[in-house]
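wait is this the right file?? whatever heres the structure
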């Protein structure tokens, strides 16, 4: 059942990303490398106690792979009693001047499994979709959604978290 949901979600998001890439053939997007910080809002609960939705913060970074439409990203979501640390690889599609839509996946490592974070309370695979835009010289605004698959201990519930922040281009 979860595999079916994951496959359906992947197909839906992939079609959006690919059509955005086709529609944006004349746009530049951004190849900015940056590090940023902002808020993280957990939207789900595992239903087992000590795993309710959390509001916290995020630290995120992006390294754009030269001459390729992919990036290597790192994200830390903190709040609650632990932090979720995520290495993520994304496909980046330019959708407007200095703006990208990105979609990808990685893995969430919880620093103290069983303790709450904005994205569940155990290690789990993660899928993300987001947008980033260079809003002024050396300033990047970003926002994304992260979906942790089976991200709660003693539960088969998935976790969803929303992030937004500002980054410094380097």
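ok assuming it is, sequence goes like this
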């Amino acid at each position: 059942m979860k595999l079916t949901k994951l496959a359906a979600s992947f197909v839906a998001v992939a079609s959006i990303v690919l059509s955005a890439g086709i529609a944006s053939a004349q746009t530049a997007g951004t190849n900015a490398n940056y590090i940023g910080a902002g808020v993280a809002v957990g939207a789900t609960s595992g239903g087992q106690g000590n795993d309710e939705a959390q509001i916290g913060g995020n630290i995120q970074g992006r390294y754009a792979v030269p001459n390729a439409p992919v990036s290597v990203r790192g994200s830390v979501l903190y709040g609650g009693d632990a932090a979720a640390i995520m290495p993520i690889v994304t496909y980046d599609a330019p959708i407007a001047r200095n703006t990208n839509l990105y979609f990808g996946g990685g893995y969430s490592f919880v620093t103290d499994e069983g303790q709450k974070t904005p994205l569940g309370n155990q290690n789990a695979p993660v899928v993300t979709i987001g947008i980033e835009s260079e809003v002024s010289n050396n300033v990047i605004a970003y926002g994304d959604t992260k979906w942790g698959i089976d991200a709660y201990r003693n539960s088969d519930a998935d976790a969803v978290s929303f992030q937004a922040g500002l980054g410094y281009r380097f």
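Helices lie at 2-23. so i think its the right one actually
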